[in-house]
Amino acid sequence: MKKIHKKIFIRNDNNKLFLYGYNLHTENPGDELPLSDISRPHMRWNPSREEWVTYSSRRKDRTFFPPKEYCPLCPGANLNYPTEIPFSNFEVAVFPNRWASFNSHADNVTIENIYTKPSKGECEVVVYSSEHLSTLADMSEERVELLIGVWVDRYKELLKINDVKYILPFENRGVECGVTLHHPHGQIYAYPFIPPVIKKEIEAFKKENFIMKIIKSSEEKYYVNKNEHFIALVPPFARYAYEVWIVPRRQIPGPWKFNNNEINSFAKIIQKVVNGYDKFLEKKCPYIMGLHASPKLEDDTFHFHVEFYPPLRHGDKPKVLAGSESMAGVFIMDVLPEDSAKILRKFMQ
Ligand SMILES: [Zn+2]
User: Fold this and answer.
1) How far is the CA of 323 from the centre of ligand 1 (A)?
2) How sure is the predictor about 311, in pLDDT bands with cuts at 50, 70 and 90?
C-alpha cells in the first residue's frame, strides 16, 4: 500500500479538518463556512431498555442560507458558496460533524429522577472523494485502500481520547436510509460507552468464535464473494433479506491489524459487495453499513467484520421495522439466508 499523507487544517472554529491522500495536500484555503452554534448534546438513561439515548436539540440562529442544490461536501473553492472543505481538490477529508450527537462540548441537564450525562465523545464526517457523484462501487481500488487507511488512523487517534470507549465507522446510503447528502461519505461515532449491540457481540465472542464456525462449516452455502483473505456472506441468522457480512479469514480485533495484502483484498471485496447490490437492484442500493471492531487494539476473542443491512424485505420491497421488530426485538423474515446468498452470489462475483 502506498504511503498516506495527512494534512491538518485548523478551521475558523478551531476544529481540525484532516486531508488524507497519497499526495500531500498543499493548497491554500478559500472561504470557510461562517461560524455556527456548537451543539451541546446530553444523554439520558432509558431504564426500560437499560441503555443510553442521546439528545442534541437543533441549534437556532443559522446564519448561512445555502441554495437548494448546494452540497456542503463538494470542494468549496470551486463553488460560489463556502462548504465544509474550502479547497478546490482533495482525496479523503475528515472533519467533526457540526451537529454532533457526541462531542467534547457536551453539557449536562438535570431532570428529576432521570439519570443523565453529558454526551462526550466525537462525531466525524468522512468524505470519500471530491467527486459528487462517485460511490464506493465505482471509485478506484486505490481510493478504497486509502479510505481503509483513514479508518485505521481514526480508530487509533480517537481511541486515545479518555472519554471515548467505542469507535463505529458507518455509512448510510440512499434516501431510504435517511440520507439527504448524496456526496459519497460515511461517519464515525466515538461513543463514551460501549453500545449495547457491541456489548452483546463482545460477550458472544468470549463464548465462542461463531464467525470462524460459519467459515469452517458453511462457507460454500452462504458466501456471496470470497478471496484469499476475506469472505462476504449472508449470515445464516440474517435479520434482513440480503444482509451481508464481510469477515476476515483470520481472527483479528480490527482493521488496524491488516497487512498490505489484506488491505487490498478488503478493498476488493467491499467493492464487489456494493457493486453487486447495485447490479441486483439495478440502481444505487440503499444500505446501512458498519464496521464492528473490538473496543481495544489488542483482543484475541473479538472477530472484526463489516455488516451491511439493505432495508429490503424481498426483491425491492422495503423492510419496515414494524410491530414485532420494534416492540419485541424479534425479526420476522420471509427470505431464507441460504436463498438470498444464492441470489446475491450471481451479482457479487
Ligand atoms: Zn458534493
Assistant:
1) 37
2) very high
pLDDT tens digit sequence for 106-133: 778 899 999 999 999 999 999 999 999 9
Q: Which domains does the chain have, with CATH numbers?
A: 5-193 (3.30.428.10), 198-348 (3.30.428.10)
pLDDT digits (tens, 9 = 90+) for 254-304: 999 999 999 999 999 999 999 999 999 999 999 999 999 999 999 999 999
182 CA distance to ligand 1 middle (Å): 7
Predicted confidence (pLDDT) at residue 61 exceeds the cutoff of 60: no
Kindly give the distance from the C-alpha atom of residue 83 to the centroid of ligand 1, in angstroms, as a whole number.
9
Comparing CA positions, the residue from 56, 126, 132 lying closest to residue 95 is: 126
Burial call 213-238: b when 16+ CB within 10 Å, e when fewer = ebbeebeeebbbbbbebbbbbbbeeb
In sequence order, the β-bridge partners of residue 44 are 53, 116
Show the cell assigned to 194. 460501549
How many other C-beta atoms can be found within 10 angstroms of the C-beta atom of residue 19?
24
Q: What is the pTM of this model?
A: 0.95
Work out the mean pLDDT of the chain and round it to a whole number: 93
Q: What is the dihedral of CA 19, 25, 27, 32, to 10 degrees?
A: 0
C-alpha Rg value of the chain to the nearest Å? 20
* Helices and strands: H and E segment counts in the chain: 5, 16
**Which among 183, 185, 303, 305 is annotated as catalytic?**
185
pLDDT tens digits, one per residue of 73-96: 999 988 888 999 999 999 999 999
* Rounded distance from Cα 72 to ligand 1 centre (Å): 6
Is 185 part of the annotated catalytic residue set? yes
Sign for the CA dihedral angle at 256, 260, 261, 264 comes to positive
DSSP SS3 for 56: coil
Q: 310 CA distance to ligand 1 centroid (A)?
A: 23
Q: Torsion angle, CA of 26/31/32/34, rounded to 10 degrees? A: 170
